[in-house]
Specification:
Elements (H helix, E strand, L loop, with lengths): L4 H7 L4 H8 L3 H9 L6 H11 L3 H4 L17 H14 L4 H8 L3 H8 L7 H11 L3 H4 L9 E2 L2 E2 L1
Helix pairs in contact: 2-3, 7-8
Length: 154
C-alpha cells in the first residue's frame, strides 16, 4: 500500500509538525504514517482526507484520479459493516473466504460486518483492490462503488 500522505501534505505546503497537530497525533507518529512504518487507522485516514478534501481511493494509491468530496465525513462502523457485507455477497464470497484472503479469522469479518469493530486500513485497502470497490464507498464517503481511473470506471 503506497499512501500519498506526504505528497498531499507537501502539495498543500504544510509541515509534518503542523500536520501532526491537525491530526491530533505526535510528530513521530505522523512521520511513521508517511514513512509506512505505522499504518494509519481508518479514522485518522478519514480525518486526513477531510482536511485536504481528497478521496480515500486517491490517498491510498488505488487511483490517480482524485474525486473531491463535497463535505466532511464521519466514519460510521455500522454503515461500513453493511457495505462490506453487501460487497462480499455481490461477489458470492463467504466470510471464511474473505478471512482467508485477508489472513484473519471469520469472527473478525463478522465483527466488521456487524459494526462492532471498524475495519483496519490494510484490510480496507486489500478488499478495495481485490474486489475493485471504492474505499470511499466502503467507508460511506461516496455512493459510487467502483474505483475511477481518470474519467473511466474500472
Amino acid at each position: 500500500m503506497k499512501l500519498r500522505l506526504k505528497e498531499i501534505r507537501e502539495k498543500n505546503d504544510l509541515s509534518g509538525r503542523k500536520m501532526a497537530i491537525k491530526m491530533n497525533v505526535g510528530k513521530s507518529t505522523y512521520n511513521y504514517y508517511e514513512l509506512g512504518k505505522r499504518i494509519i487507522t481508518v479514522e485518522k485516514l478519514n480525518k486526513f482526507c477531510n482536511i485536504f478534501s481528497c478521496s480515500m481511493d486517491y490517498t491510498l494509491g488505488l487511483t490517480d484520479f482524485n474525486i473531491v468530496p463535497k463535505k466532511k465525513y464521519q466514519i460510521n462502523k455500522k454503515l461500513v459493516g453493511q457495505r462490506l457485507k453487501e460487497i462480499r455477497k455481490e461477489n458470492n464470497l463467504s466470510q471464511e473466504l474473505i478471512a482467508d484472503i485477508l489472513n484473519t479469522s471469520q469472527s473478525t469479518i463478522s465483527s466488521y460486518e456487524n459494526g462492532r469493530t471498524l475495519i483496519i486500513t490494510a484490510f480496507l485497502y486489500e478488499i478495495s483492490k481485490r474486489l475493485n470497490v471504492s474505499a470511499d464507498y466502503l467507508t460511506g464517503r461516496s455512493n459510487t462503488k467502483k474505483i475511477y481511473i481518470k474519467d473511466k470506471e474500472i
